[in-house]
Amino acid sequence: MASIKFFTLITMVVILLPTIAMAMEFVVGDDNGWKPNFDYQAWAKDKVFHVGDTLVFNYQPPHNVFKVNGTGFKECVKPTANDQPPLTSGNDKIELKTAGNKWYICSVKDHCAALGQKLAINVTEGPPAPAPSSAVRGFIFSGYQVFMAAIVGVFIAVAA
């Protein structure tokens, strides 16, 4: 009986662990947060962002976060209020849902243009790479994993 439970446990580990996708949560600017006079391009340089990851913008008002296009990023121009309102909670979480280039700016005074409060990243498809030290790990289970866990659970029930 003990050997069946041990075998079942090993089977679950072999089935579930290799297929766990590691979604990452990146705190923009790490402990510095989202503020002027910080090099966000240097911060993002060695990070790999994947679809499913989350950016966390921590800041104090009056700062804000606007998602912009490449021109808006380059020229520090915010979208019109009708297009998109700014994020203003001070703890904004943005899930990266699609691959491609993403741009974010602060629209307060000259924070973007003169003080560098802007971030450009590239989001890639595919499985996440191992976590950088500044990321928090989370687990996402696929339908396949749930199905396999159910089968193993039935096996345990029948074997017991």
Automatic annotation (TrEMBL):
Its GO biological process annotations read: response to symbiotic fungus
Listed PROSITE patterns: PHYTOCYANIN
Q: Which residues form the Phytocyanin domain?
A: 24-125
Q: Which top-level group of life is the source organism from? A: Eukaryota
How does this protein lie in the membrane?
Answer: Single-pass type I membrane protein
Signal peptide from the UniProt entry: 1-23
Q: Report the InterPro entries cross-referenced here.
A: Cupredoxin (IPR008972), Phytocyanin-like (IPR039391), Phytocyanin_dom (IPR003245)
Q: Which residues form a coiled coil?
A: none
Annotated TM spans: 139-159
The molecular function terms of the Gene Ontology recorded here are:
electron transfer activity; metal ion binding
Q: Which Pfam families match?
A: Cu_bind_like
- Which compartment or compartments is the protein found in? Membrane
Q: Which UniProt keywords apply?
A: Copper, Disulfide bond, Electron transport, Glycoprotein, Membrane, Metal-binding, Signal, Transmembrane, Transmembrane helix, Transport
Q: Which PANTHER family match?
A: BLUE COPPER PROTEIN, PHYTOCYANIN DOMAIN-CONTAINING PROTEIN
Name of the protein: Phytocyanin domain-containing protein
What species is given as this protein's source? Prunus armeniaca (Apricot)
